[in-house]
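Box 3.1 A note on notation
Throughout this textbook, protein chains are presented in two layers. The first layer is the amino acid sequence; the second is a token string describing backbone geometry. Keep the layers aligned when reading.
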Amino acid sequence: MTFLARTLRNLFLVVLAIAAILPFAQVQADGATWRYSESNDGDRGLIIATAAAVSGKAVPAQLSFSSGQDRPRDNAFGALAIVLTIADPALLKSFHFDDFEGPDSAIGGRKLMHFRVLGNGKVTVIDVVPSGSYVDQQGKETFAFEASELAAKRRSPERQIIEALGAGADTLEISVSDSRDKQLAIVVKLPVVAEREHFTSLLTTGR
């Protein structure tokens, strides 16, 4: 495993640990509350329990954003991560989750995770190549779609997404297209207008 892969994987595990604290939404995102956290080391997270729509069916989900601080003295470097976790992938038999799993996933380099940030009368669209993992959360199998990159990379898609969210966004739409059926997608839509300050904080370096 490369240094970058280890760094991103460690951040992913931190994200999952934070996510485990927040219960999945049972039906829908209405009234859901974002939760912002910051560690003593300056690592930051923003998470919400929500719902994802697939072919008109709502399933519980979580969406989390996290940022880690660089600590060169410890040979540790922070990353930005956006993770969409589906509570019970077995319920969505038509979606090919297995194609997204692992570093050598069947999707290859296809940008099947799509972000649409709406605000200030404009739409920012950014597509990324997601990595996927089956993850045990509180004894239940979930599936996580992750987009992540080192925080030091100034023009990464992850940074551009968070910058757009902190610059006056009203709504965030995320969709993950099925690898085999172009008409099938997992879709999440959330209000973000009240979280602009927190999105900006995710990109703040130092203490």
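The radius of gyration is 16 Å. The first helix runs from residue 3 to 19.
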